[in-house]
Design goal:
about 400 residues, alpha/beta, TIM Barrel, nine-stranded parallel beta sheet, three-stranded antiparallel beta sheet, about 30% helix, about 15% strand, globular
């Protein structure tokens, strides 16, 4: 007997809820941050934990499985997504036992004290033309990692995911027109099918800064910075967008829908704005970085959805915790941090920072080898810490 539309809808909702109940959820609240460490002058991981706890940040992403970092977060309650680097993908794709060994060495020993909640398999693989050799191995690697977690009974604790850049899209303006690039579809759709089966979201690195920098003459800076502006109108959906961040997320939703995965949640795995840049990097300044990150934080605190998915609160990891002095590329690449290398704030958006112990009005202090730091408020008490 054929099922009525009502029962089909019921079973669809029931099955999605069942998958979510049986799989790890890697994000608490709506605000997270990327803890990159491509630098030789950063505070110790223990100091970073102190900083994050003072700022009430509950979610972080790291790009490897550094044991010192994972040990430092033991007992912190901060939820972590670790990275399986691109260079590991090929060996992981051909051998599930290799994935098992990697997890037993780098993930399982730190549980449950360190709250590892996700493994990011690769980073921006399907948009990298110079790494096309990895396109075919991304899905097998993700499957082997998941299967190894399953054998260890960890799939209810640790989620498997893979972040993408906007380079996987053929177009994104207006948002409803967005589709995946034709050459990525043979790899993207099977990957999405697998993530749909295991209940993982779609992770996208969304940077209004990069869009503005590429075309500052035609993109309104206020639109990119969440400031008052005319915005854009999507004639197909009849939706209005007053900021580019929401438009980029809804473009991802549109592409997923066209690919047959309209029920998949989108989470922003990276977004941010640099406080310095080269002359050619339009918009990179302390003023714009402060404006973007402050407005982004307020936007996420509202726990609201986007115009196209109003019932799904937007979640995002900000890039990045610290400025990273060894990152290659333009000056902007080394200046995305909310905090400077010494742990002091890069600009004030209401967070606390690490300051020398001689600073006035110390609140909390801790010691590192050879130096002492003190936690102080970033600035005026009128700016309250947002609780996510």
């Amino acid at each position: 007997m054929a099922l009525s539309p009502f029962w089909l809808s019921f079973f669809l909702v029931f099955s999605i809820a069942t998958v979510n109940a049986l799989t790890a959820q890697a994000f608490t609240g709506t605000y997270g941050i990327n803890y990159g460490r491509v630098a030789d002058n950063l505070p110790s991981p223990k100091s970073a934990v102190t900083l994050l706890k003072a700022a009430k940040i509950k979610n972080i992403r790291i790009y490897d499985v550094n044991h010192e970092v994972l040990t430092a977060f033991n007992g912190s309650g901060i939820e972590i997504v670790v990275g399986l680097g691109d260079d590991f993908l090929t060996e992981m794709s051909v051998n599930e036992d290799r994935a098992m060994s990697w997890i037993k060495e780098n993930v399982q020993p730190f549980l449950p004290g360190t709250s590892i909640r996700g493994i990011a398999v690769g980073n921006e693989i399907l948009a990298s033309k110079d790494r096309q050799d990895l396109w075919e191995v991304l899905l097998p690697a993700a499957k082997n990692v998941y299967n190894a977690l399953d054998r260890l009974d960890l799939t209810k604790v640790v989620q498997v995911q893979s972040p993408h850049s906007q380079g996987v899209f053929a177009n994104s303006f207006p948002p409803s027109s967005c589709t995946f690039k034709e050459d990525t579809v043979p790899y993207m759709k099977p990957l999405l099918q697998f993530f749909s089966q295991i209940g993982s979201p779609f992770f996208i690195n969304a940077y209004p800064f990069l869009a503005y920098m590429s075309d500052p003459e035609h993109i309104d800076l206020k639109y990119a910075l969440f400031q008052s502006n005319r915005g854009i109108y999507d004639a197909k959906t009849k939706l209005h967008y007053d900021n580019m961040f929401d438009a980029q997320i809804d473009a991802a939703y549109a592409a997923l829908e066209k690919a047959g995965f309209g029920n998949m949640e989108v989470i922003v795995s990276e977004t941010g704005w640099p406080s310095r840049g080269d002359e050619s990097e339009a918009g990179a300044s302390v003023k714009n970085a402060r404006t973007y990150n402050n407005n982004l934080r307020k936007r996420l605190a509202k726990k609201k959805g986007t115009p196209y998915r109003p019932k799904i609160p937007v979640k995002a990891y900000v890039f990045a915790l610290f400025n990273e002095n060894l990152k290659p590329g333009g000056t902007s690449e080394r200046n995305f941090g909310l905090f400077k290398a010494d742990g002091s704030i890069a600009y004030d958006i209401g967070f606390t920072g690490l300051k020398p112990s001689s600073a006035a009005s110390p609140l909390l202090s801790f010691k590192e080898t050879g130096s002492s730091y003190t936690l102080v408020f970033a600035s005026c008490a009128a700016i309250l810490l947002l609780i996510f």
